Amino acid sequence: MNMNIKKSALCMSVLCISLLLSACGAKNNNESVQEHAYPQSKQPIEEAGESSVPNADAKNNNDQGSTSGDEGKPTAQSESTEPSEQIDIVIDQSEKPMEGNSFDFGIKQVPKGYALTEMRWTSNTVTIVNSLQEAIEHGGNGEEGFYFSGNGQFSGFIYSDEMKGERGKATFVFTNDEGNEILSEKEITLK
């Protein structure tokens, strides 16, 4: 009986040690996926008024097919777009436990047949244009500009300290198979 107790104790010790060793080899990830997927502040930023639009000349040139001057509303580049089609994009600038400056965005609704093809940041001092492929690359290498990472789970815009406080527009370009474009613009002050 004493021998059975020793064997049981030895087996339990081996199991505990192997469990401990397997846990030590695991990557420690302090951030949970849900913290990033569902940030604390789900409130979209406040929209800026018409009088505060930077690059007013660029705005007038870029809104060629627009029938509405409302910020955040999609503007159609072709007449085939139905008014019932909407683009819903949410911008989140809540504090994040990371170095650097960024805001997150989530695309909640896209008109049928359209896909995101380009993202732009336009302010008085800089214009940044990224294709979808460039944004995916930025998600892997952490470069400034728009990014997608985590198989599309995370999306945002990384910017330098010099850009803090800038007021500008984030423009999202959606294109269909015929090449028609719909733009969605959000006025933002970078925090």
Automatic annotation (TrEMBL):
Secretion signal span: 1-23
Keywords associated with the record: Signal
Biased composition (Polar residues): 52-84
Highest taxon, organism lineage: Bacteria
Region (Disordered): 35-86
Full protein name: Lipoprotein
Species in which this protein is naturally found: Paenibacillus amylolyticus
Species classification: Bacteria, Bacillati, Bacillota, Bacilli, Bacillales
